[in-house]
């Protein structure tokens, strides 16, 4: 016998009406929080609302403190990136104590989906041109490089945590080419920290490299284009790439603890 | 009647928010004095229009102020004071009044009125007509439609850049069109307000 799974309770702010606009839509849920698509102030202004619900398994005081600190940390990172000109969602509103953060809704698809559309059903070795996807790898490397340049490491770089914002007024007609065009916008800074060390930046790249290889095994050999573009973003970047070689030999954890 | 009823998503349904813009107000000193005297008949948020850049900016401040009210975590004394505070970048109420509220020298004024109706007591709360009658009689200025274009005419950008720390922002590039630049500045202002108190 199956009982229907009850829907998650909404954060209180979402229980109030949105004038004729659409009701909040649950987009994704992770271990820590849930992501809704809803509206900010007006139905014409879509937004993403990240909600960290209270965790019943934690002591209430500790829980409140952690939730508040994490929402605050994520908002501060987004603010810093945006001021520095890194393409990230703008913060619209938040209530750290209540555990929610409203952000700009980024149109488009995750880079993961764009790359998969490009690769399609074809076999491994690149028949035909590779220009558009090589360019995309370059834009990804550039985005990560500029992010690191602000003194932030993302902590969970994957092709699902980068969006491809469509080009306004694009004239590209070919669907495959269109799938890999657009501006790379980095999202989900829930695990981001402030750090400027080569070590932390190299680990950030290493996580992306491993994620990329397992998500897009057929495109693995293109990763070098991303790293090359990364290397051109700042004076410190070549040092990070050297560090990356070290990290590859030993894995993500330096101390071998934890 | 130039009193606009604002509908703002995600606020409790019993919150009614009204707003109006008055241009070339000739009695700001009088209005300012009523605020200082805490005259209950002047329980409004009087905003200096030169400290507002757009409807989005205004609505963001109202939204923040009223979510605080809905949460029961008001830090200022009244919802209207909380709205003025919500324009600011720190938790100092008198600072916020000095920067965003009216002074005896204010020219254009945006008035915001929040009415929270309680169940069964609907008839006790002020109607839009009553609010408008009071404002029209006591704010000596030209009622003007509260549009982005009209707000933009009053905005003092130099002041805004200073208040919200927007001078020399690396993310704003020289070659951008005026429209794109202003849009990004607006986004940074809204972010600054949202991040207050973190």
Fold topology:
The complex is a heterodimer of chains A (258) and B (198).
Chain A (H helix, E strand, L loop, with lengths): L24 E5 L4 E6 L6 E6 L8 H24 L7 E5 L4 E5 L4 E2 H9 L11 H19 L2 E2 L8 E4 L9 H5 L3 E4 L6 E2 L3 H18 L7 H9 L5 H14 L8
Antiparallel strand pairs in A: 1-2, 2-3, 3-5, 4-5, 6-8, 7-10, 8-9
Helix pairs in contact in A: 3-6, 5-7
Chain B lengths: L3 E3 L8 E9 L4 H9 L8 E4 L6 H17 L7 H8 L6 H8 L8 E8 L11 H11 L3 E3 L3 H7 L2 H7 L14 H17 L4
Antiparallel strand pairs in B: 1-2, 2-4, 2-5, 3-4
What does this structure look like?
The complex is a heterodimer of chains A (258) and B (198). Chain A has 258 residues and is of the alpha+beta class. Helices cover 38% and strands 16% of the residues of chain A. Chain A has two domains: 12-104, Phosphorylase Kinase, domain 1, CATH 3.30.200; 109-250, Orthogonal Bundle (Transferase(Phosphotransferase), domain 1). Chain A is built from seven helices and ten strands. In chain A, strand 4 and strand 5 form a beta hairpin. Chain B is an alpha+beta fold. Chain B has one domain (4-194): CGI121/TPRKB (PF0523-like), CATH 3.30.2380.10. Chain B is 42% helix and 14% strand. In chain B, strands 1, 2, 3, 4 and 5 form a five-stranded antiparallel β-sheet that branches. In chain B, helix 2 (55-71) packs across helix 3 (79-86), helix 2 runs parallel beside helix 8 (178-194) and helix 3 packs across helix 4 (93-100). Chain B starts with a strand and ends with a helix. The A-B interface holds A 12-14, 16-19, 21, 38-43, 72, 75-76, 78-79, 82-86, 90-98, 102, 104 and B 7-13, 56, 59-60, 63-64, 67, 70-71, 73, 169-173, 187-188, 190-192, 194-195, 198.
């Amino acid at each position: 016998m199956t009982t229907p799974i009850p829907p998650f309770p909404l954060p209180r702010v979402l229980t109030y009406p949105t004038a004729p606009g659409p009701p909040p839509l649950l987009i994704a849920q992770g271990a820590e929080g849930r992501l809704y698509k809803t509206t900010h102030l007006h139905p014409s202004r879509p937004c993403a609302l990240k909600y960290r619900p209270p965790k019943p398994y934690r002591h209430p005081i500790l829980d409140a403190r952690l939730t508040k600190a994490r929402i605050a940390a994520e908002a501060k990172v987004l603010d810093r990136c945006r001021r520095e000109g890194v393409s990230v969602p703008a913060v619209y509103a938040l209530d750290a104590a209540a555990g929610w953060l409203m952000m700009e809704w980024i149109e488009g698809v995750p880079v993961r989906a764009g790359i998969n559309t490009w690769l399609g059903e074809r076999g491994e070795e690149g028949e035909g041109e590779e220009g558009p996807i090589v360019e995309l790898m370059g834009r990804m490397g550039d985005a990560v490089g500029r992010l690191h340049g602000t003194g932030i490491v993302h902590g969970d770089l994957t092709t699902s945590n980068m969006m491809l914002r469509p080009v306004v007024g694009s004239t590209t007609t070919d669907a495959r080419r269109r799938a890999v065009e657009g501006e790379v916008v980095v999202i989900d800074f829930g695990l981001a920290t402030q750090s400027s060390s080569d070590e932390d930046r190299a680990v950030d790249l290493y996580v992306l490299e491993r994620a990329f290889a397992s998500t897009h095994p057929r495109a693995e050999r293109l990763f070098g284009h991303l790293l090359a573009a990364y290397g051109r973003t700042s004076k410190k970047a070549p040092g990070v790439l050297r560090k990356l070689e070290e990290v590859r030999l030993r894995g993500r954890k330096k101390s071998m603890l934890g | 009647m130039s009193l606009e009823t604002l509908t703002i998503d995600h606020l409790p349904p019993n919150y009614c928010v009204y707003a109006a813009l008055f241009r070339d107000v000739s009695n700001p000193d009088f209005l300012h004095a009523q605020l200082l005297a805490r005259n209950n008949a002047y329980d409004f948020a009087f905003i200096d229009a030169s400290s507002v850049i757009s409807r989005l900016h205004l609505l963001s401040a109202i939204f923040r102020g009223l979510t605080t009210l809905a949460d029961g975590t008001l830090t200022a004394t009244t919802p209207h004071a909380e709205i003025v505070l919500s324009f600011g970048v720190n938790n100092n109420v008198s600072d916020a009044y000095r920067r965003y509220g009216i002074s005896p020298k204010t020219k254009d004024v945006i008035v915001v009125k929040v009415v929270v109706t309680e169940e069964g007591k609907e008839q006790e709360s002020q109607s839009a007509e009553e609010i408008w009658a009071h404002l029209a009689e006591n704010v000596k200025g030209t009622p003007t439609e509260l549009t982005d274009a009209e707000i933009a005419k009053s905005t003092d950008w130099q002041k805004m850049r200073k208040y919200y720390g927007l001078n020399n922002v690396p993310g704003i590039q020289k070659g951008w069109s005026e429209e794109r630049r202003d849009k990004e500045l607006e986004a940074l202002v809204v972010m600054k307000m949202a991040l207050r108190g973190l």
